[in-house]
Write a structure and sequence with these properties.
With about 450 residues, this protein is α/β, with parallel strands linked by helices. It has 3 domains: about 10-85 and about 200-270 and about 370-445, FAD/NAD(P)-binding domain (3-Layer(bba) Sandwich); about 90-190, protoporphyrinogen ix oxidase, domain 3 (Orthogonal Bundle), CATH 1.10.3110; about 275-365, Protoporphyrinogen oxidase, mitochondrial, domain 2 (Polyamine Oxidase, Chain A, domain 2). The protein is about 35% helix and about 25% strand. The strands form 5 sheets. Strands 7-6-15-16-17-14-18 form a 7-stranded mixed beta sheet. It has a 5-stranded parallel beta sheet with strand order 9-2-1-13-19, with helices on one face. It has a 3-stranded antiparallel beta sheet with strand order 10-11-12, with no helix packed on it. β10 and β11 form a beta hairpin. α1 (about 20-30) packs parallel to α8 (about 205-210) and α3 (about 105-110) packs antiparallel against α4 (about 110-125). The longest helix is centred in the N-terminal third of the chain and has 26 residues, at about 135-160. The chain is globular, with a radius of gyration of 23 Å. The model is unreliable at about 185-190 and about 425-449 (pLDDT under 50).
Length: about 450
């Protein structure tokens, strides 16, 4: 808990991804000045957008489907949003099926033996102690649907058996109570619409945040350590092209991974992140599929999900080429080859239609909820709470598998907890007015090999 913040604080924000930018933007609304330190040469983090072959490309499909009107209103201060009717599918065993899975459809589309296994598994589902994702899924859906979809997909995503994944992850992601909810489509999993910027990609949100705030953003500035006195951080140490520097501060907002933050403060936590490879393909065809994104349920296909960005832009003119982005968490020395093999296997494209490939690697893709991570996370929480002027915000810092809108909600919650403000009104001048900043799209373009 923090009380009586100084009127003129020296504020440091570690990271200029969507969480750090959200903090800087909100603090700017309160008349607070901050300095953002970003290790890379671009802003936006995983929420950045770059233009490739004339197509705005996000780093995989982000899903903005919040029901929080304040969050939508704040984002609409920055960019106009369009509400899309969700159009997504699951590709599995040679079939295109509904997303999320509809068990009744599986009974119609797949051989009778699969349907019998699904029905038998549900009717005879066990009552296991819910101490892992595996047991949770078995209790809710039965052995048939678990073996058919949940086990292979989860193994592919995290690289370990679902028996080794915490039940916490399952409760956050399986937001239905079981098979009946899946049939009725009656839980939060089954959102039917989502929001997306009318122009550009999700990176335009980060870009506009940066333009709208009156803050100092230092790119290519990597935080390497801290100075502290008692229970307070008194300065951060960072390095750039000119060497190492000290930045005295009164308050620190950290959006960097909790593991790195802990090491710089002298503690190690057994928390794990899953890296991702993002394989972008330029295909000589107006469209490859009609969907915003698809999941690949087969365990022997390296792709977790794939987006086609032109489908997020219904007003875009017809072109001779389109861009796909395949997300791969499986460790492989040749993600491009495995992605191409999967797409030809499903008949989505021919190899000779692909005329360019770009692979981007992100080290910190997903927090991995290994069994027992809760104890490590609690230990980390208690340790960081010992510093009265240190606050963690966002997916990697908080070690939570959250979406773009939840990063903004987290920033709102933390800023309100410190400064007590309950509303963030739109600025009087036009959003984004003033000198342009090296924004999300341009920065990512500059960093693209």
């Amino acid at each position: 808990m923090t009380t009586n913040p100084p009127v003129e604080e020296r504020i440091a924000i570690l990271g200029a991804g969507i969480s750090g930018l959200s903090l800087g933007w909100l603090l700017s609304k309160l008349g607070k000045r901050a300095t953002l330190f970003e290790a890379s040469n671009r802003i936006g983090g995983l929420a950045r957008t770059f233009t490739w072959h004339g197509v705005p490309c996000d780093l995989a499909p982000h899903r903005l489907y919040t029901r929080n009107p304040e969050v939508i209103g704040l984002i609409e201060e920055l960019v106009p949003l369009r509400e899309h009717r969700r159009n997504s599918r699951i590709l599995m065993k040679g079939q295109v099926i509904q997303d999320p899975i509809n068990p009744l459809e599986l009974l119609r589309r797949f051989p009778a033996r699969i349907g019998a296994a699904l029905a038998w598994g549900f009717l005879n589902r066990p009552r296991l102690p819910e101490d892992s994702f595996e047991n949770l899924a078995l209790n809710r859906y039965g052995r048939g649907l678990y073996d058919f979809f949940f086990a292979p997909y989860t193994q592919k995503m995290f690289g370990v058996s679902p028996a080794e994944i915490s039940v916490t992850w399952g409760r956050e992601k399986l937001r239905s109570s079981g098979l009946l909810d899946a049939i009725r489509r009656s839980s939060k999993t089954f959102f039917s619409t989502f929001h997306y910027p009318e122009h550009g990609g999700y990176g335009t949100i980060a870009d506009r945040m940066c333009r709208a705030m009156d803050q100092d953003v230092r790119l290519d500035s990597r935080v390497v350590g801290f100075d502290s006195q008692g229970d307070r951080i008194t300065a951060i140490r960072y390095s750039d092209s000119d060497g190492e520097h000290v930045y005295p501060c009164d308050r620190v907002f950290a959006t960097i991974p909790a593991t790195g933050l802990g090491r710089m403060l002298g503690r190690s936590f057994e928390l794990r992140y899953r890296s991702i490879d993002l394989v972008f393909l330029h295909v000589r065809r107006p469209r490859v599929m009609p969907y915003h994104w698809v999941y690949f349920g087969d365990g022997d296909v390296v792709i977790n999900r794939m987006a086609e960005f032109l489908n997020f832009h219904p007003d875009a003119p017809t072109t001779e080429g389109t861009v796909l982005c395949a997300e791969v968490t499986v460790e492989t020395d040749n993600p491009t080859e495995h992605v191409m093999s999967a797409l030809t296997r499903y008949g989505l494209l021919d190899r000779d239609e692909v005329d360019d490939v770009l692979v981007l690697h992100e080290r910190f893709g997903y927090p991995v909820y290994d069994r027992g991570f809760e104890q490590q996370a609690d230990t980390a929480d208690a340790f960081f709470a010992g510093f009265g002027n240190l606050h963690r915000v966002g997916r990697n810092a908080e070690f939570r598998h959250i979406e773009l809108d939840e990063d903004l909600e987290s920033a709102l919650r933390v800023v309100r907890g410190i400064y007590g403000h309950t509303t963030f009104r739109a600025p009087a001048t036009e959003t984004g007015a003033g000198a342009p900043f090296f924004g999300a799209t341009e920065a990512a373009d500059a960093a693209t090999p």
